[in-house]
Design a protein that fits this description.
2 domains, binds MU-OXO-diiron, single chain, about 400 residues, Metallo-beta-lactamase, Chain A
């Protein structure tokens, strides 16, 4: 746990979860995570978000100490339980408190946590609340990454509380962000897995944030930014339409055929000055794969045929690609079969429609021979031309 006064009477409460290794039973957390809440002490004491239910005992203890025994409002920027999960306990311990949330937020909180509606107060987009000596503004920011999300701004202290937005899964002893490669990587992993599917919404919210006069960004996961430009610039890049001269190759190989194809193909891309990122799906961390999808211009899926279709690991990767909705411009498939099947159609049927050009696949029968390597070379050449058309190299 890390507690620090950010500005006078505004306290950050960062509960570290050092050992957590999986989020939503899906997302690997190599560096754990944190659940951050913020307490504003004024004529009205306001708690911004809470903590994960697993931290409730410690969180309530800290809150009682810090608040002097009075919480008037609990701002719920986001109803997901890692931030809202302690609200029922806070309402119980601080009997005069009420929850502030968006219209949809109240609706979700009453269903997910059975919070009585009479203890909730809906706020409209842009509505302000005076806490005494400062004003809080509530701004609807839907799809960060749920429909009810809002961000709260302490206008007078110039602190933004964006909940999940700008977060990072990084347990650390530091309260403020060390703007280094490790943090960049954690924030990018977080963006890839949580925010990327909603890139267009996030882009709008980013413009909203850029128009505010903000000195500190206090998210609900990871360290606090007293240099907001670090994370805002990173987000500007990630949500933009620009892609990089990279080819991501998620693949799986059963008897070595696809592995040989990938090995040849990767070398061919590298020779052409293209950054190749192969991911063996039997060993890869899906967070690493998701991160690589943030920028790559091209994805090439590699799969053998199992029974009559693609390998289940390749199906999983294709599904992940579809739901994460990266800004990838070109996609292709390389793979193999023994005696037949419908692997290629099964994979291409799963691909999202829209601004994604499918390049000619390379499917071989058995082990690849010289004509197959030639086809892979041609695919690499096509990718080179496509990347050149986008001025990526
Ligand atoms: Fe950190 Fe969407 O919860």
């Amino acid at each position: 746990m890390v507690i620090r006064e950010i500005t006078k009477n505004v306290h950050g409460i960062i509960m570290n979860d050092w050992d957590r290794r999986l989020f939503d039973e899906l997302i690997p957390l190599p560096d754990g995570t944190t659940y951050n809440a913020y307490l504003i002490k004024d004529e009205k004491n306001v708690l911004v978000d809470t903590s994960d239910p697993s931290k409730s005992e410690k969180f309530i203890r800290v809150l009682k100490d810090l608040s002097g025994g009075r919480i008037d409002y609990i701002v719920s920027n986001h109803s997901e339980q890692d931030h809202s999960g302690c609200i029922p306990r806070v309402l119980e311990e601080f009997s005069g408190s009420r929850v502030i949330a968006s219209d949809k937020g109240v609706s979700l909180l009453t269903k997910l946590l059975h919070i009585p509606e009479e203890r909730c107060m809906k706020v409209a987009d842009g509505e302000e609340l005076s806490t005494g000596s400062r004003r809080l503004r509530f701004m609807y920011a839907p799809w960060v990454h749920w429909p009810e999300t809002m961000i709260t701004c302490d206008i007078d202290d110039r602190i933004l509380f964006p909940c999940d937005l700008f977060g990072s899964h990084l347990a650390t002893s530091s309260f403020y962000a060390s703007c280094n490669e490790r943090l960049y990587s954690s924030a990018k992993r977080y963006y890839a897995e949580i925010m990327m599917p909603f890139r267009n919404n996030i882009r709008k919210h980013l413009r909203l944030v850029e128009n505010l006069d903000i000195g500190i960004i206090a998210p609900s996961h990871g360290p606090v930014y007293n240099n907001p430009d670090f994370i805002v610039s990173a987000y500007r890049d990630w949500v933009s339409d620009s892609v990089k001269n990279e080819v991501v190759i998620p693949y799986v190989s059963m008897h070595g055929s696809v592995a040989r194809m990938v090995d040849f193909f990767v070398d061919s891309l590298i020779r052409k000055g293209i950054e190749a990122k192969p991911f063996n799906l039997t060993a890869t961390d899906v967070g690493e794969l998701a991160m690589s999808l943030v920028d790559a211009a091209t994805v090439v899926l590699g799969t053998p045929t199992v029974l009559t279709g693609p390998h289940p690991s390749a199906v999983y990767a294709t599904y992940l690609f579809k739901v994460l909705r990266p800004k990838t411009r070109f996609i292709s498939v390389i793979g193999s079969f023994g005696w037949g099947g419908n692997m290629l159609k099964s994979i291409t049927d799963m691909l999202p429609s829209g601004n994604l050009e499918i390049l000619s696949p390379v499917i071989v029968n058995g082990y690849p021979g010289n004509p197959d390597f030639e086809s892979l070379e041609n695919l690499a050449k096509t990718i080179l031309e496509k990347h050149k058309e986008l001025n990526l190299l």
